[in-house]
Amino acid sequence: MKAENRRNEILSLLVNADSPIPANVFKDKFNISRQVIVQDIAILRANGFDITSTNRGYVLNVKVQATRVFKCRHSFEQLVDEGALVIGLGGRIEDIFVNHRVYGRISARLDLHSRMHVEELYRSLVSGASKPLMSVTDGYHYHNVSADSEQTLDKIEEALRQKGFLIEI
Fold first, then answer.
1. What are φ and ψ of residue 47, in 5° steps?
2. What is the reported pLDDT for 74?
3. Are the C-beta atoms of 26 and 63 separated by less than 8 Å?
4. Which of 10, 62, 94, 110 is the most exposed place for a label (fewest CB within 10 A)?
């Protein structure tokens, strides 16, 4: 298979993916090395495609129509409830950030767009290897949430408010 055709197929797989695609999937499908995958992704990026490498694989970032910052507070145990609520209503949790009084803004990319991703995050945190970022600010934290429309974000905002997670900014 020609390199250009392979890159087009990689792009097609990324466009149609519901979750990140691990490099091993490309390696096995096209019988190529990891180095070739890295080169192909670099060429696709150079051609203007916004591809992010995450710990779960590659993601093609598509432009969404609406984003909003939500300030929230809840317990560690309610982390899954918050994520499931946002995702269940059609949102995507892009990141988390806190405003620490000493260190300033601390942020981490999450890219949570399925309940499975939220549960994986929770399991990673509950294992004790690390504490959730919100723990350094007594549960207060912010999320950049994206969705297909402002109306979807309005529904998410109202649901967060009803659940008691939303802090009015």
1. -85, 10
2. 94
3. no
4. 62
Cβ distance 69 to 166 under 8 Å? no
101-132: pLDDT as tens digits: 899 999 999 989 888 889 998 988 888 878 89
pLDDT at position 62 is 74
User: Is residue 64 pLDDT above 60, yes or no?
Assistant: no
AA letter at 151: Q
Q: How far apart are CA 167 and CA 161, in angstroms?
A: 8
pLDDT, one tens digit per residue, over 6-20 is 998 998 899 888 889
- Enter the tokens of residue 33: 């090395």
Considering the chain, what is the average pLDDT of its residues?
91
Residues 167, 80, 130, 74: what is their CA dihedral angle, to the nearest 10 degrees?
20
| Gap between the Cα atoms of 165 and 82, Å rounded | 8
Long-range contacts, 27-33 (Cβ 8 Å, 24+)? 30/1, 30/6, 32/6
Cα distance between residue 55 and residue 109, in whole Å: 11
H or E, element range at 108: strand 104-112
